């Protein structure tokens, strides 16, 4: 018969009590908070991608510059408009620049950290998601860190430059509260966009070719927020306030900074809601992610 | 099945996986129907066993492996690996299993092989000494020494497979699942991979479960084979036993002194002459019967010059088995 020399020893090996893991230090298997584990795994994987991109330095430099230039043209378009008009939807250039800068920077951060999540559908289709599911770290962190690319800093940089211009050029009475509002907007804005990335990825578990739907909300949302709410139809403004809470990224808090009137007759205090809204938005996004992953694991496609 | 395997390291009891498949019949319109990818499968695998899991495409092999690794949740039945329910405690189980997907590398394309191993080191929190020891052993046995600093994209398929196997073993898994580990490899690479797996199983006692299309893998590695088709376990036992189940035939090739009419043996009705070519004749007889009396009878009645016995082609046996299963 065929070679079965291995089979003889197999019987003996079966008697080995316990695994070799038995002599591993206990702390390897200690239960850790999933969030901490996720952040650690994210860091490990992101570092691998950084090293991968460094294998192609010239390409990295070019795409980083391309990213910066492509987003910069966005703002150039706005500048061109202002060469013909003094106000856009009732807003001056520095005011628009504040809206643009906050949204662009916040979106840039979210895109830097979670921007590759729109590739999830592809991973589901080609089956490579399975290779992530056999690792001892959270899948969300692995998917989020996928193709981590510092070139996306180009977008952050461009947003930050416009924001910097706005802060210098704006002619308003800065109060401590208004000053504190700026970093608050950036952080909670990035969190709101981040939740949107996660929710969009969760949707792709069900509809694997929905990357463009997700992009419509993320990239599209960012473009929308670069203009004041007064130029859009009321229904659209309602939608991004109450359904997908993008209005909390910059519109509502920035209008407070600018001392402007609120859309939809909303009270002033909504300006301070962004951190809360971001937290609340992460809840359904996280649940959607879990539901999506569970659906994937029960259907496999 | 052996008595010792009744309490297995891997245990499946009536495990099922049912998919709802939606087929598009028009715009926004679809038909739903249920597919039983795995239909009430039960088996035990003892610690240290090496088992081949075979079946045609779409038979449910990959689905089973995915349930064993916790990727997929079973629709029914009970499943345990090392006492852990894989779908409930996927990440805890991950420390104890190694998985190699033959067609999907987990290595980092643009980075040297070594970097992928460093990631495993950190991700699995492998103690430093253990990591170095395991890496050194894999490097030596899989002959990876010169490849460690080569970007993975420059490796050949066989080199990459060896690299993938090493990556799956650095954290000392108690069980290794291999999905088509030799697919697309040349003969030399195949035999190297097989040799390594055999040693791993023999020396470290690692339980190995592998799916393959190449039956030579099974012949050279596994004393036990499981055949699955249409989600059902068709056979579970020694490879040799497949012949009996599959009603396979052996072939006796005889060279006579001269060209003669087809050999006819009244005393042995189960023997058929299947081919005549000049003085050479091919006789088929059941694999379960001994060839010796048959040879004696032919030698008595015919001018026999030379002879040889050909073992049944295992692929043919299995193909026959699949056919009889679908005919049911």
Domain module count of chain B: 2
What is the helix content of chain A? 55-70%
CATH homologous superfamily of the largest domain in chain B? P-loop containing nucleotide triphosphate hydrolases
- Gyration radius of chain A, in Å: 24 Å
Q: State the separation between the terminal residues of chain B, measured CA to CA.
A: 25 Å
Q: What is the CATH topology classification name of the largest domain in chain B?
A: Rossmann fold
The domain count of chain A comes to 1
Beta fraction of chain A: under 5%
Classify the oligomer: heterodimer
Order of helices and strands of chain A: HHHHHHHHHHHHH
Strand order of the largest sheet of chain B: 5-6-7-3-8-9
Q: Runs of chain B with pLDDT <50, length 5+?
A: 1-5
Structural class call of chain A reads: mainly alpha
Shape of chain B: globular
Low-confidence stretches of chain A: 1-19
Average predicted local confidence, pLDDT of chain A: 86
Count the E strands of chain A. 0
Biggest interface pair, residues each? A-B, 46 and 57 residues
Organism (chain B): Streptomyces atratus
Keywords (chain B): Antibiotic resistance, ATP-binding, Nucleotide-binding, Transport
Membrane topology (chain B): Peripheral membrane protein
GO cellular component, one term (chain B): plasma membrane
């Amino acid at each position: 018969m065929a070679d079965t020399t291995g089979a003889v020893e197999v019987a003996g090996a079966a008697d080995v009590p316990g695994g070799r893991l038995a002599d591993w230090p206990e702390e390897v298997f200690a239960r850790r908070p999933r969030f901490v584990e996720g952040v650690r795994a994210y860091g490990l994987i992101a570092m691998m991608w950084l090293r991968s991109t460094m294998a192609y330095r010239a390409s990295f430099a070019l795409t980083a510059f391309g990213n910066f230039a492509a987003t910069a043209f966005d703002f150039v378009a706005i500048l061109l408009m202002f060469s013909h008009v003094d106000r856009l939807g009732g807003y001056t250039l520095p005011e628009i620049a504040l809206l643009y800068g906050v949204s662009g920077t916040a979106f840039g951060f979210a895109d830097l950290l979670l921007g590759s999540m729109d590739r999830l559908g592809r991973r589901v289709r080609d089956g490579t998601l399975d290779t992530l599911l056999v690792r001892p770290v959270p899948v969300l962190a692995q998917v989020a860190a996928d193709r981590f690319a510092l070139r996306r800093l180009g977008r952050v940089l461009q947003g930050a430059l416009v924001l910097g211009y706005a802060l210098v050029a704006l002619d308003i009475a800065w109060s401590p509260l208004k000053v504190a509002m700026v970093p608050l907007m950036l952080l909670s804005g990035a969190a709101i966009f981040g939740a949107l990335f996660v929710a969009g990825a969760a949707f792709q578990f069900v509809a694997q070719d929905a990357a463009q739907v997700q992009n419509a909300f993320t990239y599209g949302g960012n473009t929308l927020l670069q203009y004041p709410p007064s130029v859009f139809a009321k229904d659209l403004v309602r939608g991004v306030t109450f359904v997908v809470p993008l209005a909390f990224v910059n519109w509502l808090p920035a209008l407070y900074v600018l001392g402007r009137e609120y859309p939809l007759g909303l009270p002033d205090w909504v300006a301070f809601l962004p951190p809360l809204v971001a937290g609340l938005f992460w809840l359904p996004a996280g649940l959607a992610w879990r539901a999506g992953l569970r659906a994937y694991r029960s259907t496999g496609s | 099945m052996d008595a010792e395997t009744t309490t297995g390291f891997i245990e499946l009891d009536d495990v099922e996986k049912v998919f709802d498949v939606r087929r598009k019949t028009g715009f926004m319109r679809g038909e739903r129907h249920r597919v039983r990818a795995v239909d009430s499968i039960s088996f035990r695998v003892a610690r240290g066993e090496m088992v081949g899991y075979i079946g045609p495409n779409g038979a449910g092999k990959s689905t089973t492996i995915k349930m064993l690794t916790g990727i997929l949740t079973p629709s029914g039945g009970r499943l345990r690996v090392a006492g852990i329910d894989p779908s409930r405690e996927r990440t805890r189980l991950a420390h104890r299993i190694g998985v190699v997907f033959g067609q999907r590398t987990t290595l980092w394309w643009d980075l040297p092989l070594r970097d992928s191993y460093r990631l495993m080191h950190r991700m699995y929190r492998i103690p430093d000494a253990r990591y170095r020891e395991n890496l050194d052993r894999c490097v030596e046995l899989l002959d990876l020494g010169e490849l460690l600093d080569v970007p993975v994209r420059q490796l050949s398929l066989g080199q990459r497979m060896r690299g993938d196997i090493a990556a799956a073993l650095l954290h000392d898994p108690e069980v290794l699942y291999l999905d088509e580990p030799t697919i697309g490899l040349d003969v030399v690479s195949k035999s190297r991979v097989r040799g390594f797996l055999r040693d791993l199983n023999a020396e470290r006692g690692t339980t190995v479960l592998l799916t393959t299309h190449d039956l030579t893998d099974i012949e050279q590695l596994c004393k036990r084979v499981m055949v699955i088709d249409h989600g059902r376990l068709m056979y579970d036992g020694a490879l040799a036993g497949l012949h009996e189940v599959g009603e396979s035939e052996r072939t006796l090739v005889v060279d006579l002194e001269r060209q003669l009419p087809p050999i006819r043996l009244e005393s042995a009705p189960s023997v058929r002459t299947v081919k005549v070519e000049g003085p050479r004749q091919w006789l088929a007889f059941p694999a379960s019967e001994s060839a010796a009396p048959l040879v004696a009878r032919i030698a008595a009645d015919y001018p026999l010059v030379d002879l040889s016995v050909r073992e049944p082609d295992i692929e043919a046996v299995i193909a026959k088995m699949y056919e009889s299963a679908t005919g049911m």
